[in-house]
Amino acid sequence: MGEIRGLESFDCISYFSKNEKVGPDLILAGLFWSGDDSYAEKLSKIISKIREKQDVNKIFEEFKNFLRNPQFNVGGNALYDRKSVIFNKPREIFKNTEHSNFHRFRENEFVHLSSTKVGKSSDVSKKSGLAFLKFVKIEGGEVTKEKVWKARRQIMELYKTMTKNQKIKDYFSKVEVIEKVMREGLGGESYKLPAYYKLFGYLVPFDFANFEGIFVLSRARLFERKKTVEELLKELKKEEGKWNDFLFGLEEKLIEELLEELKKLSNLEEEALEDLREDEDKLKEFLLNLNGEVLEKLKQGRWKDILSDLKDSELREKISKKAEEEFINLLNQAFDKEFLKELRKEWKNMTKEFIKGSYPDLISGVFLERSGTEKAKISYGTFSVPNKDIDLFIFYENEFANGLKNFEKNLKNANTDFGRYTGNIKINIEKNMPIERLIPFLEDLKKMDFSKPLKKEDAEKLLFSLLYFAVRMKNFVENIRKDKKPQAILLLLSADVRKDGESYPFWDYFRAVYDFFSVPVQTLNRPTIEAFLKYNKKEIQYIYKNLFISLMKDLKMLNLEYEGFELSEEDITVYAVLEKPSSGFCYDRSSMEDKPKKHYLLEVYRIDLKKGKAKVGLEDKFILLYGGVDTDTDRFRNWIEERLYNNIGFCFITAGKMEDSYVRQIVKSSERSSEIEKKSIFVEYRELPVAYMSEKAQKECFVIYSDEFNELKNKLGAENSKKVSLAIKPADVKSEDKFMLDNELFYHSAVQIFTTEGQGWEPTALYAIKKDLFLITLLALSQYESESFQTPYSKLNLWEKKKSIQIVINRNHQDYKISLNTVLYEMLYLISKIPVKSHENTGS
10 Å Cβ neighbour count for 785? Predict the structure, then answer.
């Protein structure tokens, strides 16, 4: 076994491997890599057995014993080579291969850029622009469920106050009753109950975000629903005690309503009472078939007797049934497409009123309008992929076994029918296998409750499944390298991402594995698989092209054309480095003073700019482990120093604060730091959600320069900063019917904000070249990241924004709390250094 010692030791990261005693609130890492030689050797032996495809259950038993018992000896040989700490780049294998090109969307299709200014409130109905809404009475900072509940209640009350539509007014009056029952009848903190928090989110479907210390609206979910009424009811009734409490509260509210109706009846003349007694339909509606004796008691003012009758067991059953019926009717209304259309129309009018300042004590709004079209534009681009047939391996969940032949036949048909749109690359289906060959415990994972920290046995299965999958992906890259032929994987999953509760909450971690190894992998969920089985040509044409673009992953390059950018006459190469921090570790959750430590994944993209043309592709990847227990930190520093030539620039982008950036620290530690900084720009990335976007604004790419962005922040009351920003509102999806409802897009992109220290990128001659170089870099990177042919942008995928699954592992009777996101970085780092035997084949 080769040398595995890290560059320096870091005590906290070795607490787990050394079985140190820790406090109950300490969040740890170091489960897959800590700089401990003997610990890593044991892990390497387990990985070797996975690689050799030994019995899965026996390997899993060894893995569990290894985690649980510090003294456990793992049998077998460990293969490990510290020098092989390299990122395997499948694209490099085909660098000198002939390539095939195809247009992302259409030839000569461009995105035009427009500048902006903070508009007048009176212009919101006339101008093309964006609206942003701040909730004045709700503090910024962390977006808690309590704050979201409060904001939704505020919107509910505003709808009732502002609308002239009686149907909408009546709806929110009923929602108000439901909200009060949940808030007062379910323990006082109903926002802590997942099913009822979700219920209120369906009744008042609005989401929120924090932006620089203010609480803003992020999305109005007034389109289609991801759940059916029946599915939501099933979830609510799952916890029987809470459902009974909720139903009892609804019954009590209905009784109150009935008493109010009875009071009204008591003021009627005798003749009117007789008429009402004969009007059976009205009696059924108001009194639930209560008999004439009640009216006699009513005339005598015997209210206690009436209340007693209403709570009689037989009558109570009728009331209970009626209360549940009315609740279900309300849910049906909340899910009704026509009613949602009315809510959308009303919300637009309300948004305009907020911007005009009609409710300044509750919601303040700012309108950012288009100030003019700039001469700059950028094309949708042309993809370039290796001009070689692709061998495809299909892994499927059991439910698709019977339809597999039909799926394969239609996939081949799609390749024949629409291959001309994807470079005429032929796809050969090499083999199909159950997905358990890649993820041994998938069925168990699907049954786990990820809403709370996983049970110890579940955590072990999840970790082992990820480890097993990661070794398979590493093998797959080695096969591509050995055979010098593109190979790809399709994963057929039962998940339906359109429905709540049917997506896989753990899948982001598996996606991170194949993304890291740059393996051509694409998942298909149930609706897409069903579409292939039906094979509607028009629909499949869209699906197939997006599938192919996604499948090519890092094998592809993107060639763009641009005009109107003031750049240097000389050719320029920019290396854009995305810094993706892991979740925090080595901190005590009960301490406000502890600052979390982090690992980092760096993705490097190369953007070549030459006389109106840009070429974009993935260049390299690095995993940097905290405390110097890796070898990649020096490798990354050397990588930068080797590229300090003329016409080379670096753009470092992080999701956190730049003062916390590990990349910035590495640059400062270089002996050539001053040279690097002159060629670099260090950028913080975040997003500002758009509350409303005019139809014209959907089609354009807005560029917001520092002055306008600062004015926008000031109007919203956001925190002041001396840093300068460049913000981009990307052009939205091409207006295809499948992305729209009633001529409206389902989803609007957020404003992407890039902030730096130093000189800003104002549209002036002095900074024009620097500003335009940065702008074209961001646009080119965003274009490349998008895997949809209709979408000319992608949000930057920075892991810090994702909530991590928490796990608990017991080692020698000591519980260790660990963030899954953190140890995934360590797992990928370790596996990237394990050599794979040349004769191995992933599909065997």
Answer: 17
What torsion, rounded to 10 degrees, do the Cα atoms 795, 621, 468, 551 define? 50
Would the pLDDT of 762 be above 80?
A: no
- CA dist list (Å): 536 to 134, 530, 541, 651: 44, 10, 9, 44
pLDDT recorded at residue 545:
92
Rounded to 5°, angle at Cα 555 from 549 and 560:
65
> pLDDT tens across 681-728, in order?
899 988 888 887 777 777 778 888 888 888 888 888 887 776 778 888
Q: Which amino acid is at 311?
A: K
- Phi-psi bin for 212: left (phi > 0), alpha (psi -120 to 50), beta? left
Contact 566, 612 (CB under 8 A): no
Pairing, β 744-745 against β 129-139 = unpaired
Query: 520: helix, coil or strand?
Result: coil
Cα distances (Å, whole numbers) of residue 177 to 164, 240, 256: 20, 21, 11
Tokens of 705: 């320069």
Torsion-angle region of residue 703: left (phi > 0), alpha (psi -120 to 50) or beta?
A: beta
Give the separation between CA 310 and CA 320, rounded to whole angstroms.
Answer: 11
Q: Does residue 742 carry a pLDDT above 70?
A: no
**In Å, how far are 284, 308, 394 from 278, measured between CA atoms?**
11, 24, 70
Distance of alpha carbon 324 from alpha carbon 828, whole angstroms = 51
Cβ contact 459:16 at 8 Å: no
| C-alpha triplet 219, 224, 228: angle, nearest 5° | 120
Instruction: State the pLDDT at residue 500.
Output: 58
In degrees rounded to 5, what are phi and psi of residue 800?
Answer: -60, -25
3-state secondary structure 212-253: CCEEEEEEECCCCCCCCHHHHHHHHHCCHHHHHHHHHHHHHH
Q: Give this prediction's pTM.
A: 0.85
Q: Are the C-beta atoms of residues 154 and 175 closer than 8 Å to each other?
A: no
CB 330 within 8 A of CB 178: yes
Tell me if 43 sits within 8 A of 830, measured CB to CB. Answer: yes
DSSP run (H or E) holding 690: none
Determine the Cα–Cα distance for residues 205 and 67; give it in Å rounded to an integer: 44
CA dihedral of residues 268, 270, 272, 276 (deg, nearest 10): 100
Report DSSP state, residue 595.
P
Distance CA 104, CA 118 (A): 34
Distance from C-alpha of 404 to C-alpha of 409, rounded to nearest angstrom: 9
At 526 the three-state DSSP class reads helix
Transcribe 282-332 into DSSP letters: HHHHHHTT--HHHHHHHHTT-HHHHHHHHTSHHHHHHHHHHHHHHHHHHHH
Measured at the CA of 96, the angle between CA 93 and CA 100, to 5 degrees, comes to 95
Structure tokens at 810: 């017991």
Q: Are strands 701-704 and 110-118 parallel, antiparallel or unpaired?
A: parallel
How far, in Å, CA of 580 to CA of 643, rounded? 22
Dihedral in degrees, nearest 10, Cα atoms 815, 817, 822, 824: 50
Lookup result for tokens 């206690």: 304
Contacting residues for 689 by C-beta, under 8 A, at least 6 apart: 132, 209, 211, 216, 217, 218, 219, 750, 751
In angstroms, rounded to a whole number, what is the distance separating the alpha carbons of residues 674 and 539? 54
pLDDT digits (tens, 9 = 90+) for 511-523: 999 989 888 999 9
Q: Using CA atoms, how far apart are residues 683 and 664, in angstroms rounded to an integer?
A: 10
Half-sphere exposure of 3 (CA within 13 A, CB side): 7
* Residue count of the chain: 844
Task: Tell me which DSSP letter residue 627 carries.
Answer: G
**Comparing C-alpha atoms, which of 649, 678, 683 is closest to residue 570?**
649
In percent, how much of the chain has pLDDT > 90?
A: 42
Report the helix count and the strand count for the chain, using DSSP H and E.
27, 27
Of residues 143, 146, 180, 176, the one with CA closest to residue 158: 176
